[in-house]
Amino acid sequence: MRVVPVADADVVGVASEPVYRVRVWTPGGRPGAAWMVDEYDVHEADDVLSVLSWARSKSHDGSFEVFVPCTERARARDGHWEDVKTFVRVFGQPADEGGTTEVVLLHADED
Fold first, then answer.
1. Residue 99: CB partners within 8 Å, gap ≥ 6?
2. Which of 67, 96, 98, 110 is within CB 3.0–4.6 Å of 21 for a Cys-Cys bond?
3. 94/24 Cα distance (integer angstroms)
4. Residue 67 to residues 4, 38, 52, 77, 111: CA-CA distances in angstroms?
5. What's the predicted TM-score (pTM) here?
6. pLDDT per position as a tens digit, 58-96
7. Span between the terminal Cα atoms of the chain, in Å
């Protein structure tokens, strides 16, 4: 960890309606099975402590992560700069650090 003092004149922006991304990890049904993850965007939370409390109540064994969204500047393939939405983990860790993550999106057919 590296700590750098900042000038008093630096302005800290506070989002009027922060959004937190929460990942709740659940172990697979048998030993060696992949972990499952449910993701939620949490709106209208009083503070990060209430988000942590909510996430703990959703997790069975305490395996969860909390992120905040941010925007970074990145150079696109054509050379111009663009804003890219990313997430910064502020609490927790993936349930299985040694494993891999596979994302499967399921969509219901609409009639």
1. 34, 35
2. 67
3. 9
4. 23, 14, 11, 27, 35
5. 0.73
6. 987 778 999 999 888 888 899 999 998 899 999 998 877
7. 53
Query: Which tokens is 20 given?
Result: 């937190």
3-state secondary structure of 72: strand
Whole-number Å distance between alpha carbons of 7 and 106: 48
Q: Both tokens of residue 111?
A: 């009639």
Query: 110 or 53: whose pLDDT is higher?
Result: 53
Indicate whether 12 pLDDT > 80.
no
Strands (E), the chain: 20-26, 36-42, 64-75, 81-92
pLDDT beyond 90 at 6:
no
Nearest to 41 by CA among 25, 19, 56: 19
Label residue 97 exposed, middle or buried (CB < 10 Å: 0-12, 13-18, 19+). Answer: exposed
3-class DSSP state of 105: coil
Average pLDDT, the chain: 84
